[in-house]
Write a structure and sequence with these properties.
7 helices, 5 strands, Nucleotidyltransferase, domain 5, five-stranded mixed beta sheet, about 200 residues, alpha/beta
Length: about 200
Amino acid sequence: MNLLSFHQPDFTEAGCDEAGRGCLAGPVFAAAVILPRQFEHPLLNDSKQLSEGHRDLLRKVIEKEALAWAVARVDAPEIDRINILKSSFLAMHRALDALRQKPEFILVDGNRFVAYGAVPHVCIVKGDGKYASIAAASVLAKTHRDDFMLQLHEQYPQYGWLFNKGYPTEVHREAIRQHGITPYHRRSFQLLPQDEQLRLF
């Protein structure tokens, strides 16, 4: 897929994206990536369009060749406290904070963002399928989050996080009915239909 290399040719740009916003359990992860101007890879695309094997391959390439990259997360209790939208922005800010090279411009996947200090930014709907740096961030956020959920699966195998990664599948919801919730579940989310949700807490 032909992705654009940059939005502003005169600035060092970081692409930002998140993973796990719609999950019932686990953190929301975000990544920030600054790619070399000449970076290209034939597989690079929105992570949701890639196979797991291709995402894992791209993660190695991106982490090796990026000028700077970072991944950060916001855990379930904080999501419950400040809401998922603010948590997504916070995770992106934490990833930007962790970059070893500071960007002069930020490309954000989506239609909303909270300004990162004085650094200018632009929001791009479906940007992970348009700009290489956002696509790279989507790959890192997704693969790092998946790895985290696999670790949690070892503690809580009954929820099927090995397969659903915390998303609201019927297997996941049925496990909530049978086993209740864990410290990693987002209590502020609609985990079950409303009449059943009331019995969880």
